[in-house]
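Lab notebook, page 48
Experiment: co-folding of the full assembly
Goal: obtain a model of how the components sit together before planning crosslinking
Operator: M.T.
Materials (sequences as entered):
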Amino acid sequence: DIVMTQSPLSLPVTPGEPASISCRSSQSLLHRSGYQYLDWYLQKPGQSPQVLIYMGSNRASGVPDRFSGSGSGTDFTLKISRVEAEDVGVYYCMQTLQTRSFGPGTKLEIK
Amino acid sequence: QVQLQASGPGLVKPSETLSLTCTVSGGSISNNYWSWIRQPPEKGLEWIGYIHYTGSTTNYNPSLKSRVTMSIDTSKNQFSLKLTSVTAADTAVYYCARLLEGQWLGSYYYHYMDVWGKGTTVIVSS
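Observation: model returned without errors.
Model output:
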């Protein structure tokens, strides 16, 4: 089984400042197709999760361009260029290479 | 705009079977894959599995595989989850989601969960 870890688990950020979340997998998420099999989701307080990024770096429809995903193999990063108040919530990475499994989540809060 | 709504008994007794239905509105269930995810109280997300709209393909979380069955009813625009022999550890908010075709990879699509239902709470208790 592929185990996902994230850091930090808690991330206080000042509005307007950048934020970065790291996600690591116990095995490479590079598929034979050459693509990275990793997605990012955000669960805002009291809401269902919503997709932000798929295949490591593809922004889903309607997602603001301040969100970006990067990385390869076992190390991935979600970056928010300028945090806004509406970005508060728990961010999850999820591998899709072998069935699917989520990371533990990173809680972003506003300072 | 596609919307999903999970429904079912909010209380299930230990050792019994949890049965949930997800109703798809605003679009047809007869394309894409459809998924279930759960979230225990104050914990993170756990992927349960997915089913193809034809019902011919399913993929379950290995840790739940022996207890999970998913099915689909295209005539009702619904898909379902059954989880047998439940315990308190199965207490969670259960979400259903659509797996949308994302990028074409040459012989198949990469899918990701683009629409999620609001979730339904299931408590396992006697």
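Interpretation: The interface with chain A takes residues 37, 44-47, 49, 59-62, 95, 102-103, 105-106, 110-114, 116-119 of chain B (CB under 8 Å).
Next step: discuss with group before ordering constructs.
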